[in-house]
Amino acid sequence: MGTGGRVCNRTSRGVGGCDVMCCGRGYDASRVSRTTKCECKFHWCCAVRCGACERQVHVHTCKGRT
């Protein structure tokens, strides 16, 4: 229950921001690998082919109750 473990936005000051969402408990930062479609090309007629690109992103999650 609560917001422990939920992803938050470190730079936002709104309700999705870590300061507000984590209720002052702080947050953990981690780096994860994400795979997305990229370099998509349209092939005549009616097909789109994409490559898979992997990139590292920072993810911030609220700390749980201690």
From TrEMBL:
InterPro entries: Wnt, Wnt_C. Keywords: Developmental protein, Disulfide bond, Extracellular matrix, Lipoprotein, Secreted, Wnt signaling pathway. Gene3D superfamilies: 3.30.2460.20. GO terms for biological process: animal organ development; canonical Wnt signaling pathway; cell fate commitment; neuron differentiation. It is found in: Secreted, Extracellular space, Extracellular matrix. The keyword Lyase does not apply. GO terms for molecular function: cytokine activity; frizzled binding. Pfam families: wnt. GO terms for cellular component: extracellular space. Ligand for members of the frizzled family of seven transmembrane receptors. Belongs to the Wnt family. PANTHER family: PROTEIN WNT (PTHR12027:SF37), WNT RELATED (PTHR12027). This is Protein Wnt. The gene is wnt2_1.
